[in-house]
């Protein structure tokens, strides 16, 4: 149980899949703790570091985010992951924790499970080594390659970062991870080490313990990498996309999809000798992408603008395609969404979900004769989507605005739905999150997780069962079977001497 919890929580907080990322704002109405006042706006609420959800009438709309066990970090032990004024939503999108209960401390910070190179500036006041002078500013301190923390009065505010064993790398053996003048905060956000004790050497570099992911699924030849970011992207943002980051080789893609990604991510990974020309000599990346083609100038004297390859899972008839993008989307952005791109047929969807996607992605793929009217003659796409309906004008003389189909996995009672979007979200954006959309019931969640969202359900269960042994309350009487315990809606721990069946966090309330 404990091993499963640790691995799932790491997956939940640090990396993402197509399932909706965990959000600290997913709090049941009955468990919400007031953070505002009647009539408070979303912006005013978020400025307080709180969550806002107005989808359910008669409950608290502005409330404090929930804090899971891995986020229970003492304020003076927190490693910065954001900036002053960051919202809980943006903080969570970075795979980090948000806790605004204590004023004048870091609210957005790394979880307990982070590698030591993320916490180089978490130094006890009495152990700090001076790196500045009285009155030094944060910028002046950072320019020296040092840490700045003014949250504790009457101690050293500008101090040298601690160097953990994984960062003890000889200068001549350091693999560059930054650039001259990089701050320790940005260096750490890339998952790298900073050591400024020796001048004129690399200060920001990779640790001597590359993560298992980098050693295995991320060991992709530079010329075989499928772009997942953009030049200058940080390791933190790259990881928050569920991708690999490796900056050891200059002038290649640093943020890329792992070697285990499904084939639709790799449409632009084409051997030079197999490339089919899509441009002309001197064509720019933008001109190439405007044609719906791939651009890769990493290898000289070969075709740089070429047609994407179409894998078997992307061989979907135009009239069966489920939209995953928008008109004019580039193949790179489409692939980054985990979708297929096929520009061979004009005037149809070019960016669409693969044939292997679960049914909730296909809610707007409805045969013309089976469509249920949701609009009127001449309705626009926006007017249709504002009604929570699908719009498809690719086939003339049929219904263009129609109700989405609801698969078995999406047949969830309104009161049992777990939010996956926000009020006014479109069905296409909801489906792109891997979630269900059902607008048949007013004043209920329209975008929500399916019953078959295994990763979401498992991680939610882990959070509900993350209770310290001494705080656990027995469920049932001497229940020794995990199956019986689970049937009671409770948590089960197997390693002795902590074996037993106990109430979940949800049952405590």
From TrEMBL:
Subcellular location: Secreted
Source organism superkingdom: Eukaryota
Coiled-coil intervals, chain numbering: none
Classification via InterPro entries: P_trefoil_chordata, P_trefoil_CS, P_trefoil_dom, P_trefoil_dom_sf
UniProt cross-references to Pfam families, sorted A to Z: Trefoil
Keyword Cytoplasm: no
Presence of the UniProt keyword Disulfide bond in the record: yes
PANTHER family: INTESTINAL TREFOIL FACTOR-RELATED (PTHR13826), TREFOIL FACTOR 2 (PTHR13826:SF14)
Protein name as catalogued: Integumentary mucin C.1-like
